[in-house]
Amino acid sequence: MSVAVALAVGHLVAGLVSPLASPFLAVGNTAIDLTPHPVKDFAIRTFGENDKLVLLGGMAVVLAGLGVVAGLLSRRSPWPGTALAAVLGLVGIVAVLARPTTTTWGVIAPLASLVAGVAAFRWLWSRGQAQTPAPAEAPGRRKFLLSTAAIAAVAGVAAAGGQWLAGRVDVEASRRGITLRPGKKAPEIPFDADFAREGTPSFLTPNEKFYRVDTALTVPRLRAEDWRLRVHGMVDNEMLLTYDDLLRRPLVEKTITLVCVSNEVGGPYISTSNFIGVDLADLLREAGVRSGSDQLATRSVDGWTCGTPVDSIMAPGSNAMLALGMNGEPLPLERGFPVRMVVPGLYGYVSATKWLVDMELTTFDAFDPYWAQRKWAKKAPVKTMSRIDRPKSFERVPAGRFVAAGIAWAQHTGVDRVEVRVDGGPWQEATLSREVNVDTWRMWRIELDLKEGNHTVECRATDRKGYTQTNERAAPIPDGASGWHSMVFTSVAG
Question: What is the pLDDT at residue 119?
Fold first, then answer.
């Protein structure tokens, strides 16, 4: 129970000084930073957007277990439990100090957590000892249980208060007050841009279904009115932009597909949206990119860093932008409100900073962003790939005529063709949907004549440069997965 009090008090104080200074969240974020790549990949594959909830739940279980151990070791003396409470408090202090967003005042939260944890344990221990030498007597037991209940109530109130304080910034009100009017709208999506009735995704991904993969344990809450973007480093003119400054610039709407490097072959982390924002290349030209700068280092409000090749942004037709909206509305909080970066053709970890607050023109030699520090590729162009969406794995389908369908992508180049084969037979060319632009996915469908029994279907895409995706399997790390996607399914008599 003393562990719960420590965490709750730390969370409460963090709500007053800085939500990111919560010891529980700081330890969680540090755990994310230190987790080995295979474990991260497993968590993303297995739990998807719920991976962080699983982490927090696991931490709670571990801390509860440590609390039980401390109680058992402290039957005769309070010092084992006191020492453990102090150690946990020090871990919280170190974790908060290690966060890139920690302020001077932020350290107060883990200090309060340490003091509260030690004090709560000592008080509970003394109440428990007050029962001796007759611990089985009802009055003594009742007093101890009442003391424990009081501590639990304090912990609950403190945790709820901290959560309320952390969420007191009314970001949704800020978001609702924004109207985005792009001067240049994206072309209408043609009716034959997808084969959704035959199993592909709809061409535009609804905002609530757009994939989310990031390191943020809690979604940053930053109002548009408080947002600032600093542009500095190897530039001729440093800039400090407000949200209104961006609204006064020409807004454009562009249809763009984003892909996460964590996508396994056939994975779900790819989505498409009509993004609304300002041209990033124009903004950098206004700042004046100095010769020799080859990396745009960007920082999120929670301290996460990203590095994007400058030449990818400045290339003609790059479509790189600072996005303020998706599908006709301001960015949802989880997707990066108030402002995020979007650079098609690159995996998200080198191009799609959410909750953006800082841009520095620098070099790849001078700065290693978050994932580069963990030996991921510094430059990560999206690979030409394809995926089967129908049939599903181990699905039972009617024998005879059957329509298989899926998606393919080859950003900046465009998909030239998709081929499908069944049970290792000859490759057959699929029918492609209408192309919207080369920076978006493209759907495919094919009619197959299936006999009864088990089957394996495979697909591969070829881009307009003549490159056909390789069957050589590669894991997502360090620069994206590769290989042909396949599905095993069964055809049965109708």
Answer: 75
Please check whether residue 460 is in contact with residue 418, taking contact to mean a CB–CB distance below 8 angstroms: yes
- Residue 78 pLDDT: 73
pLDDT tens-digit series, residues 182-194: 999 999 999 999 9
Query: What is the pLDDT, as a whole number, of residue 90?
Result: 76
Residues of the chain whose pLDDT is less than 50?
134-136, 144
Q: Are 435 and 428 in contact (CB under 8 A)?
A: no
How far is C-alpha 93 from the chain's CA centre?
Answer: 25
Determine the pLDDT at residue 435: 97
Question: What's the confidence (pLDDT) of residue 135?
Answer: 47
Q: Can you give the pLDDT at residue 94?
A: 74
Domains and CATH numbers, the chain: 2-166 (no CATH), 191-374 (3.90.420.10), 385-492 (2.60.40.650)
